[in-house]
Write a structure and sequence with these properties.
The structure holds two protein chains of two kinds. Chain A is α/β, with parallel strands linked by helices. Chain A is built from six helices and 14 strands. Chain A has a six-stranded mixed β-sheet with strand order 2-1-3-4-14-13. A four-stranded mixed β-sheet of chain A has the order 6-5-7-10. In chain A, a hairpin with a 2-residue loop joins strand 8 and strand 9. The longest helix of chain A has 16 residues. Chain B folds into two domains: 252 residues, Mur-like, catalytic domain (UDP-N-acetylmuramoyl-L-alanine:D-glutamate ligase, 3-Layer(aba) Sandwich); 138 residues, Alpha-Beta Complex (Protein-Tyrosine Phosphatase, Chain A), CATH 3.90.190.20. The chains are: A alpha/beta, B alpha/beta. At the A-B interface, helix 1, helix 2, strand 8 and helix 6 of A face helix 12 of B.
């Protein structure tokens, strides 16, 4: 199968190698004889885009300046993005993308950018620009009832509150706010998180979880993905877990 | 004030003397102590000679060394920081080592590599004559913050700066500094004419796609590399500059370029090297350095500090290059690809404080273009991260060998013969040089 992916604002929300997530999804699909067709959505494409036709909608992280530039464009697509989400299209969002899907984002200058309001959470950045959650982060999440450690790098000034169903429990790092117990937001077809790295690079099981969700929905029956040789990824995780979780 | 300055220098001198007695390289420490003790420590120095500062994301060390070499060749007495040490603390330490007990610094010129974020810190206290700004790329986002934050810091300084401002006219992030102080008549742009491998579309991750004046998307005639190229704003005209220096007829094969009617042969052969020389040429022109000296330095001078540094082991040639951010790394990958023959690569990736703890930037490196790379060895504190990155770009995982220990990695790399390239990020480059030298000397002596 060829999954249809909508990569929103790739030229604006592309900090911290987040576009690597697209490369990773495609890589893991191709290894199994599937493929991905990634469509780049840029400002002004709203009218011609059929959001519901995609299997996955992706938003990465961006700088404050870019987030302000695109806010209006994003809002103009609100109704149709909501419909896509409700129809079960998978929503994968990182950092800025995560914030923009909530109620609002108030930046460090006190400027309020309205979110799409897909979810109840909202984000407020500290007025002190230096106050940011920066560093390696490890969280524990559940993928189909199985516990899985997700590792990445967080770098955000925004503090997100009113998160009803967080993506994971923080084992190392900050999460949704300074010293928080929780990180990100999740639903059956939603993963929203502050984790860069990019997210899927060191968490292959999460990548496969998202892929099999999308493939299964498309096929109408469960698709099981054969395992790949993830030895390098596993070693990478081991080294970082040892460094971050065992030194305490 | 005199008394405070006197004691500042005295304490600094004693500290640095003590360290020397202990057999330690004074390095950064005396400056660190002084700057912590007294915020204005730099004001204690009396400097009469012109100061030239070089800043920007990539190429600072090379350009500083080149400008210093030019002045050296003219017989001038210069003080410079050739090894980096480009924060206020490092510059304080440098001046401490070169001043009298009254804080007087004797030299004809001070040529100082200066970290972007420290330009306002240092030159609010020392009188700057010329500021050279090379480029602004994304670099260590977790440490520096967004590129925009950094540009605004330097821009803030430029608002009240009336000295010579030598700017890269082909980088929209740099050229905008020329607008910071409309009263400054000493703004000069350097530029490089379209070269053979320039592209119509953006090839690697770039910054500054929007006009800093009016927010309109910039339009490019061509891209040289990353976001460097001939750009202009279709709405307000930003970007239409008259260059003070423009290199033309870029020939990377020879390698050479032309400027002001003369051909210059160069030692390096990459487009970013040409941009560095363009900045150096502008400084040489500004200070009236004779063309004969410029020819000589461009033809023969090499920085050799892990920047395109050559090594050889039993007939196998290796080129080591520093790459501390996506643009530097992409340029290095391009250079590796331009070498047609089969080759192997060593990539050393660290995540120490000076590197930034975040290694996600390696995902902005375009490895899918690998040409004839037969094997990759990875090393450093994040050896597995870079291995995963290269694998997922589609490179055969069986051809990747991970050796976190550098000595083992070098040994592994030289277990075969043939052309080699090594890429190392900031804190990895000196240990990599050391490991290469250890191996080459050790093995050479044993046989």
């Amino acid at each position: 199968m060829t999954l249809k992916i909508l990569h929103m604002y790739p030229n604006m929300l592309d900090l911290y190698g987040d576009s690597g997530n697209m490369e990773l999804l495609r890589y893991r699909l191709r290894k199994r004889g599937h493929d991905a067709e990634v469509t780049a959505y840029t400002m002004g494409d709203g009218a011609k885009t059929d959001f519901e036709a995609y299997d996955l909608i992706y938003l990465g992280g961006g700088a404050d300046f870019e987030q302000q530039l695109l806010a209006d464009d994003l809002l103009s697509c609100r109704g149709r993005i909501v419909n896509a989400y409700k129809s079960g299209v998978f929503m994968l969002m990182i950092c800025g993308g995560y914030q923009l899907m909530g109620q609002y984002y108030k930046d460090s200058n006190g400027k309020k950018i309205p979110g799409l309001g897909l979810f109840d959470y909202y984000t407020v950045a500290s007025t002190n620009k230096r106050e940011r959650c920066i560093g390696n982060i490890v969280i524990e999440t559940e993928l189909d009832g199985e516990k899985y450690k997700v590792i990445g790098f967080e770098n955000h000034g925004g503090m997100t509150d009113n998160v009803k169903t967080p993506f994971g429990r923080v084992l190392f790092g900050n999460g949704n706010r300074f010293g928080s117990q929780t990180e990100g937001y999740t639903e059956k077809n939603v993963v929203a998180t502050y984790l860069h790295g990019p997210l899927l690079s060191k968490n292959p099981k999460l990548a496969d979880h998202i892929l099999s969700r999308c493939l299964s929905r498309r096929q109408g029956s469960e698709v099981k993905l054969p395992p790949l040789n993830d030895k390098l990824e596993e070693q990478c995780r081991k080294v970082m877990f040892r460094r971050l979780l065992e030194k305490k | 004030m005199f008394i405070i300055n006197f004691f500042t220098i005295l304490i600094g001198k004693i500290l640095s003397g003590l360290l020397h007695l202990l057999g330690k390289n004074a390095g950064n420490l005396p400056g660190l102590v002084l700057c912590t003790m007294r915020k204005n420590a730099l004001k204690a120095f009396k400097i009469d000679c012109p100061i030239i500062a070089v800043t920007g994301t990539n190429g600072k060390t090379s350009v500083t060394n080149f400008i210093a070499e030019l002045f050296r060749q003219t017989g001038a007495n210069i003080i410079t920081n050739p090894e980096g040490n480009n924060l206020d603390t490092g510059i304080t330490s440098l001046l401490l080592n070169h001043c009298t007990m009254t804080g007087k610094v004797r030299a004809d010129y001070l040529i100082l590599e200066t970290d972007e974020s420290h330009v306002p810190v240092v030159y609010s206290k020392l009188k700057l004559e010329t500021l050279v700004v090379l480029n602004f790329f994304r670099d260590q986002l977790d440490r520096n913050g967004e590129v925009e934050t950094l540009i605004l810091k330097v821009n803030g300084f430029c608002k009240t700066f009336g000295g010579n401002l030598i700017l890269n006219g082909d980088d929209p992030n740099v050229a905008r500094l020329g607008l910071a102080n409309p009263k400054n008549k000493n703004v000069k742009y350097f530029s490089v004419d379209k070269y053979r491998y320039a592209t119509d579309t953006l090839y690697e991750a770039g910054e500054g796609r929007f006009c800093p004046q009016c927010g309109t998307a910039l339009v490019y005639d061509y891209y040289q590399y990353s976001h460097i190229g001939r750009f202009a704003c279709p709405k307000c005209g930003y970007g239409k500059i008259t260059p003070y220096v423009k290199l033309t007829d870029i020939d990377l094969a020879r390698p050479s370029f032309r400027a002001e009617g003369e051909e210059y042969v160069t030692a390096g052969s990459t487009i970013y090297y040409m941009y560095n020389l363009s900045a150096v040429y502008a400084a040489a022109k500004l200070y009236g350095i004779d063309k004969k000296t410029v020819h000589k330095v461009f033809e023969s001078f090499e920085v050799n500090n892990g920047r395109m540094e050559r090594f050889e082991y039993r007939g196998s040639e290796l080129t080591l290059n520093l790459a501390k951010n996506p643009v530097g790394a992409n340029m290095t990958v391009r250079m590796i690809n331009e070498c047609e023959q089969e080759k192997e690569m060593l990539f050393v990736l660290n995540d120490n404080l000076a590197d930034g703890y975040d290694v996600s930037w390696i995902w902005d490196i375009n490895f899918s273009v690998f040409n004839n790379v037969t094997r990759v060895v990875t090393s450093g504190r994040r050896a597995y991260d870079i291995a995963v990155r290269i694998k997922c770009s589609g490179y055969d995982e069986d051809r990747i060998v991970v050796k976190p220990d550098l000595d083992e990695a070098v040994k592994e790399l030289f277990s075969t013969t043939g052309r080699k390239f090594a890429v190392a990020n900031y804190t990895a480059v000196q240990p990599t040089r050391a490991a290469l030298n250890r191996f080459i000397k050790g093995e050479g002596a044993a046989k």
